[in-house]
Amino acid sequence: MSKNVSKIAFKLKKFQKYFEGDILTDISTRAIYSQDASLYKVLPIAIIYPKVYNDVKIAIKFAKNNNTSIIARTAGTSLSGQCVGESIILDYSRYLTKIIEINPNEKYAIVEAGVIRDELNIALQPHNLIFGPNTSTSNRAMIGGMVGNNSSGSYSIKYQTTRENVLEINGYLSDGSEALVSTKLIMNYNPNLVELMDKAILDCTKYNITQNKNRFFIKGDPEAILMIELDGEDEESLKLKSHNLIKSLDNQQYIYDYSILYGNDIKRAFDLRASGLGVLMNTKSEDRPVEFVEDTAVDIEDLPNYIKEFKHIMESKGTEGIYYAHAGAGEIHIRPKVNLKIEEGRQKFREIALATAKLVKKYKGSLSGEHGDGIVRSPYIEYMVGSRNYELFKRIKSTWDPFNIFNPGKIVGFNSNEENLKYKIGNSKTIPTNIGFEEDGGIIKALERCTGSGDCRKTESVGGVMCPSYQATKDERDSTRARAVLLRDYYQGNYDNSVKIEDAVEILELCLGCKACKSECPSSVDMASIKTEVLTEYYNTHKPKKHIDRMANYYDNIKIASKFSSLYNLAITTPLI
Ligand SMILES: Cc1cc2nc3c(=O)[nH]c(=O)nc-3n(C[C@H](O)[C@H](O)[C@H](O)COP(=O)(O)OP(=O)(O)OC[C@H]3O[C@@H](n4cnc5c(N)ncnc54)[C@H](O)[C@@H]3O)c2cc1C
Ligand code: SF4
């Protein structure tokens, strides 16, 4: 910890008495919050879990008075580095999770920032209402983060983005005073959704236990599939509509086969699509599909030419891309394969990012259709919007946040989009372990499977069993993701080796070793095997705690106890003992 950071953390800890929520400054919690689902990694100063709104106010004032900054966070599934920085992280997901009011007559709901999008919809279901914008992460993404990123997803054609579905926001300005932002609700009822999955992603789903079962509707071994959802007045009109669509696609020879799905099968198909990003990480190669030009969007008319030209960029850089998702909105997700652990890969990262920005500008598109600009897109924003508009961005930021308290270094005032990448050049040491982890090529790579997508933060009410410890405590620390982040820090010796084996053992304490992550996590992180490895290392040099020792030697202990069975029986049946 730098002197300044430790001074701020120390001072903040002393402020605990003014907070109803919790303040944590220990290395393992800070390490857990050093990442979101993006490419970036920065150790924050401290984590605050606000319990009441006054906590937020005090935190802002503290940041202002101590010349530091704040990053708000909910599920931390952002892909562009929005939740990463040397700031105080304000995690709303622990306490500020209430649905305050549902008004079925006026069709609105009042919620706190930490309400999960799918849980809101479960609560809205009895009123025949939904909150439309949906991300692939909707079973853990929270409303605060959706507003922050202006999220949307596969239903953007029908429900647009979060912005169009928000009436009012109660928030705070950088001096700690309250603000109310009001927008008009606009709902677009275009009943359509068009989602793409290419062969590279489809093939990855074959090796994921859960997703392999969701491939039930795929015929043959297609190069790509397109998922289209239609609405109809009744079953008859819907059938007619789908029949006509299939016929015209067939006439144009766009398809060679199709499946029509109803009811729960639709959900299973979309689970397959939503797993897209995660399953991509099931690769041994260091040339990983990387998220830095992922959600570029152009006019739907321009999409074929845009993709053609993008493919030329890939070829000229000697790599290839993975293509999937929102074709219907002109926003096919693209991940170029790049190895960020070598200089050559970094060079490709730079060149592809710049060439893509130029291409998007040529088509008058958007560099980020839904994931947000964060750190990764910041260097290209001035180029995209022009110097005059960029100056306006800067003025808006300095007017509303004159002390640069909120999420600094993103969009304006950024440093570099390479400095804090979580993959470091030359940092590929192999750690000798008891278990081989041959499938991945070592324990670090087994841990690097975790993309930070936060699938392990879904709650029991939205389905699935991963991760039971998170479902029980709702604490980021007890998620598979937190374990993967901290254990990587431990094995890589990050932060001057300040993450110790004791921290590694502690974070695994509530891990049941149930292997739910192995099958349910899209990246198939196998935390149970990793736990075995960590505990083996620990118990090679440490004595086990008494209760663990007793359990481990259960049969030997029972054998000894059986020699004194009458005494033992007396002991356990006598109420006084
Ligand atoms: C596998 C995968 C698929 C994804 N698919 C999609 C997709 O289809 N569509 C899409 O739009 N996005 C997608 N994302 C990105 C991300 O999941 C969404 O943008 C999501 O809505 C973010 O929600 P969150 O709760 O994780 O927010 P976080 O990541 O925690 O925060 C998002 C932003 O909001 C800010 N914020 C959070 N809470 C507050 C608050 N209380 N006050 C002020 N600011 C706040 C944060 O500082 C940050 O800038 C995907 C991500 C992954 C990993
Ligand atoms: S093995 Fe551990 S980390 Fe994985 S789902 Fe089970 S409890 Fe969670």
Automatic annotation (TrEMBL):
Name of this protein: Uncharacterized protein
InterPro entries: 4Fe4S_Fe-S-bd, 4Fe4S_Fe_S_CS, FAD-bd_oxidored_4_C, FAD-bd_PCMH, FAD-bd_PCMH-like_sf, FAD-bd_PCMH_sub2, FAD-linked_Oxase-like_C, Helical_ferredxn
Keyword Membrane among UniProt keywords: no
Intracellular or extracellular location(s): Peroxisome
Keywords: FAD, Flavoprotein, Oxidoreductase, Peroxisome
GO molecular function, one term: D-lactate dehydrogenase (cytochrome) activity
Keyword Methyltransferase (UniProt): no
Cofactors, names only: FAD
Domain of life (superkingdom): Eukaryota
Leader sequence segment: none
Similarity annotation: Belongs to the FAD-binding oxidoreductase/transferase type 4 family.
Gene Ontology cellular-component terms listed: peroxisome
GO BP annotations listed: lactate catabolic process
PROSITE patterns associated with the record: 4FE4S_FER_1, 4FE4S_FER_2, FAD_PCMH
